[in-house]
Amino acid sequence: MFIWTLITRGEHLFAPRPLEAAQPTEIQQEWAARRNTAWFQFSRPDPLRHYADLRRLLTNYAQRLARDIDSGAGQIINISTFGSHPQ
């Protein structure tokens, strides 16, 4: 979610959460209950130490990922393998 917002400049509430979606309902509910707290820690100017360290690592990763996407580096996705868009 944090990486997605850095790369797309999108709102964190709209970020896809495929790992969460793959979890049992109980786990999804637990993660949802913690989401706002985690987001607050990531976005505040003075986060707790472990959040600050993680934010730094994720920000560096997001910058590298954005560079790779913009340069066309990385995995090539064959759109035809995903099927057709529903009408």
Provide a compact summary of the structure.
Helices cover 61% and strands 0% of the residues. The chain has a domain at 1-10 and 23-68. Helix 1 crosses helix 4.
Structure description:
This protein has 87 residues and is mostly helical. The chain has a domain at 1-10 and 23-68. It has helices at residues 2-8, 18-21, 25-43, 49-71. α1 packs across α4. The two termini are 29 Å apart. Mean pLDDT is 84; it is low at 82-87.
Write the layout of secondary structure elements.
Layout: H1 2-8, H2 18-21, H3 25-43, H4 49-71
Helix pairs in contact: 1-4
Runs in which pLDDT lies below 50 for 5 or more consecutive residues are 82-87
**Class inferred from helices and paired strands:** mainly alpha
Write the element-wise H/E pattern from the N-terminal end onward.
HHHH
Count helical runs: 4
Roughly how many Å is the radius of gyration? Answer: 16 Å
Q: What gross morphology would you assign? A: globular
Helix content: 55-70%
Mean of residue pLDDT values? 84
What's the story with the biggest beta sheet? Answer: none
Please indicate the percent range of residues in DSSP E strands (runs of 2 or more): under 5%
Kindly report how far apart the N and C termini lie: 29 Å
- Total beta-strand segments: 0
Descriptive keywords:
disordered C terminus, 4 helices, 61% helix, mainly alpha, 87 residues, globular
